[in-house]
């Protein structure tokens, strides 16, 4: 990589607990002995209120120059719904072509799950959520707003190009897993146009992966099986909106949003024309109600750092973090004391170095 | 009502286990001492294979003449996905203007839930799902099918008329509940056009219901809370597709799809121009894998009969069935023996009459 650094990283702490959890993620990262150069970008609700700006074109251009981006969380009730989501978070996903939204759903040993009978082996899947199409395209409109004749439309846009590339990624991911199983989740019986495209692409690509067992599940049934039979899933590939819903549900069954990491991934080869930095972030939001109190669990942010390292090819370092988190989670249960955000970060850092 | 009958009922047993569970629902209904006249319509996969017909216009016209419709389940793997759904189930919902899809999510005492710590008081909500709009409108299309340039669109259509009527129904429903709380579930931060319409309508109508506490929850967060904190919900009002997903999830947390009843409701006053019969059905499907073996749980079908009676104003009779089911569910747990579909129906019938 460029300079004499292993990683040139852009950091967007964001709002609320974002900064607190990102600080712990960076602490763990710095303990690995890699050469990391970080540059912080103050984006989010506070920046918007102060400057009226959400994401300037020059900032976006600068962000393209990093190896990766680490984001805490953005959002505050003072900003109308949709504004930061559309013009910051989704804009980054679309502009940097993060067409894979990678969300592991994994129950670590020692972690309490709301599912009374689930054991860690029962919940171990990866959701490959499409990140740049579907109902997230922003297409739609409104007519006769505010009258009794108002209509509002919202359009899901799906392309063979967009579906095929994420489906291929999911098949490749399934090849790395012992069970080698891929499930398409959609709603083909109602969303017949989009569903038909997804189903045909999966069927066609599956011919190139004879080792992979492929099946299909409607999204309504899948949400049921996340609770009653999560073991049936290994790798899931799904549409942007279904992936959004299922991965929050997945976070809940795997012990909570405080542990769920995600990657907004552009899988192109670095240096190629379609490459842009990938962005890693905890699935949780900015939680303004507990901000500044040291109450947030930084584990999801720390696991997001591990996902980032894995993506950058630093797999041994990623594994060290995951291992440290796994040990911490087991000991959390055995030896329950309430720790602050910083204490959890310190403990995981100590396990990484020690 | 017409003739000397209390209820003139059209019955669509359907495919797979549909006929088995409907038979038990009718057995319980007949035990109440009401004057019920039933007419059976053989619709579904078998009928389609035999005749090439899914729902003839004359059949639809006849169905309009009943007080209500009871449906078992339709569907078989031999019919391509979407065909029976669109041309039978959804067609009935659209033609008979079933704009309220009513789905209680309630954990009965004695019923095992996958949520280790949930008690019956924690799960007691009603999902009011819109039934005739949104992504179910069937709007969309495909271009350059089968090529690398294919695009497929799927459009969600939302009208002030359609949203307002279901929102009003939900507020009225919330007024009948002790907690008087209504939650709008949507994804206003991404589906900004449709979400904005829903949010504005809920806000406007809420002014007429000062006793009701209204709040909002994104669908991804809602799916998480169904598992981690179902108690926060009392009445939910939501879009057709979100309601589809959440109610299957709801069935799972409330003890399984074998217990979940639903009503496709047209709330107009009988005799008025917009009235048409409402249709009641278990949420589960036709389960061809266990059909004909007496293994299906008829409880959801029986509870669907209770919902139907309630809708027809026969509230005392509805309560008798619900009470009988509640007792049966408690005793099931205490005294576990595996019973056939018919035995469960017999036992609940005995409790209704006894
Ligand atoms: C904040 C929101 C736009 C976002 C999404 O819907 O994708 C979030 O829920 C997520 O899952 O990352
Ligand atoms: C069978 C299907 C069309 C239907 C739906 O999506 O509404 C079903 O899942 C339901 O919930 O009643």
UniProtKB/TrEMBL annotation, chains A, B:
PROSITE patterns, per the entry: IDH_IMDH (PS00470)
Gene Ontology MF annotations: 3-isopropylmalate dehydrogenase activity
EC number: 1.1.1.85
Cofactor (UniProt): Mg(2+); Mn(2+)
Membrane among keywords: no
Pfam family, any one: Iso_dh
Key words of the record: Manganese, Metal-binding, NAD, Oxidoreductase
UniProt domain Isopropylmalate dehydrogenase-like: residue ranges: 8-348
SMART domains: Iso_dh
InterPro entries xrefs: ICDH/IPMDH, IsoCit/isopropylmalate_DH_CS, IsoPropMal-DH-like_dom
NCBIfam families hit by this protein: PRK03437.1
PANTHER family: D-MALATE DEHYDROGENASE [DECARBOXYLATING]
Name recorded for this polypeptide: 3-isopropylmalate dehydrogenase
């Amino acid at each position: 990589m460029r300079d004499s650094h292993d990683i040139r990283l852009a950091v967007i702490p964001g709002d609320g607990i974002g900064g607190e959890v990102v600080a712990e993620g960076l602490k763990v990262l710095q303990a690995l002995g890699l050469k990391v150069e970080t540059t912080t970008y103050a984006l989010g609700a506070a920046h918007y209120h102060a400057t009226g700006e959400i994401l300037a074109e020059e900032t976006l251009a600068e962000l393209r120059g990093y190896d990766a981006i680490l984001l805490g969380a953005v959002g505050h009730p003072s900003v109308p719904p949709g504004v930061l989501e559309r013009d910051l978070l989704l804009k980054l996903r679309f502009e940097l072509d993060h067409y894979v939204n990678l969300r592991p759903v994994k129950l670590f040993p020692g972690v309490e799950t709301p599912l009374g009978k689930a054991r860690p082996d029962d919940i171990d899947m990866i959701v490959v959520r499409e990140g740049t199409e579907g109902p997230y395209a922003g297409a739609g409109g409104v007519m006769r707003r505010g009258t009794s004749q108002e209509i509002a439309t919202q359009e899901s846009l799906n392309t063979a190009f967009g579906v095929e590339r994420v489906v291929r990624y999911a098949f490749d991911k399934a090849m790395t897993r012992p069970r080698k199983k891929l499930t398409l989740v959609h709603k083909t019986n109602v969303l017949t146009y989009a569903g038909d495209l997804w189903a045909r692409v999966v069927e066609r690509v599956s011919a190139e992966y004879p080792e992979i067992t492929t099946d299909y599940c409607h999204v309504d049934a899948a949400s049921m099986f996340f609770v009653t039979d999560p073991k049936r899933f290994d790798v899931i590939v799904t549409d942007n909106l279904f992936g959004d819903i299922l991965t929050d549900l997945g976070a809940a069954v795997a012990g909570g949003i405080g542990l769920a990491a995600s990657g907004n991934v552009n899988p192109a080869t670095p240096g190629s024309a379609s490459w842009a930095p990938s962005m890693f972030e905890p699935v949780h939001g900015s939680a303004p109600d507990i901000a500044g109190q040291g109450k947030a669990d930084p584990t999801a942010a720390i696991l997001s750092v591990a996902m980032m390292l894995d993506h950058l090819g630093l797999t041994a370092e990623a594994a060290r973090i995951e291992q440290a988190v796994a040990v911490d989670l087991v000991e959390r249960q055995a030896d329950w004391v309430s720790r602050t955000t910083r204490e959890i970060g310190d403990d995981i850092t100590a396990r990484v170095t020690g």
